[in-house]
Amino acid sequence: MPGSDALHSALTGANIHVPYRFTYADATAREAEAGAVPGDVGCLALQEDDNSLWILTEDDPLTWVSVADAGGSQVAQVATINIVIDGGGAEIADGTEVDVEIPYNCTISAATALADQSGSIVVDLWMEAYADYPPADADSITAAAPVTITTATKSQDTTLTDWTTALVAGEILRAHVDSCTTIQRVTISLKVTRTA
Length: 196
Known about the structure:
Layout lengths: L21 E3 L2 H5 L12 E4 L4 E8 L2 E7 L9 E9 L10 E5 L4 E23 L18 E11 L8 E2 L4 E10 L3 E10 L2
Parallel strand pairs: 1-2
Antiparallel strand pairs: 2-3, 3-4, 5-11, 6-10, 7-8, 7-9, 7-10, 7-11
């Protein structure tokens, strides 16, 4: 139970060297935990019904994030979704589009753009369900703050003002070049945290 003295030094017998601090019978029991304290944040829990591991990321409100599936294979908590837009040796043309499928539910926390040379580029990101493909301008997730490099080789946005940051597995993300000057190749890296 979170908040109790279950530190490594207090463990005995078969519990020595287990990687988790808490044990719950199922998701209902884990999500109903009422005794979490700030010191429990970052600790692991074993959910016994499917042998999944969960990390406590917030104690108020209680927030758990999966770190292993039922088979025990590790799931990266933080990852990147990379989109490469290449002009093929020439300046990237306005209107160039690249599509990627979102591999899992996740939340964007940062957008980084890296160009092959100094220049300017504005790239909007559009999201649409696979069934409604292709995405269009009305499906923008960047609001009034598209990915932008201005007379430089790089940019990074960790604020993501008014962005729709929740991405859903199977949806299609389209990078659409609104404008470009000089840049021939740009990589857009979206830092994401897996949510399911």
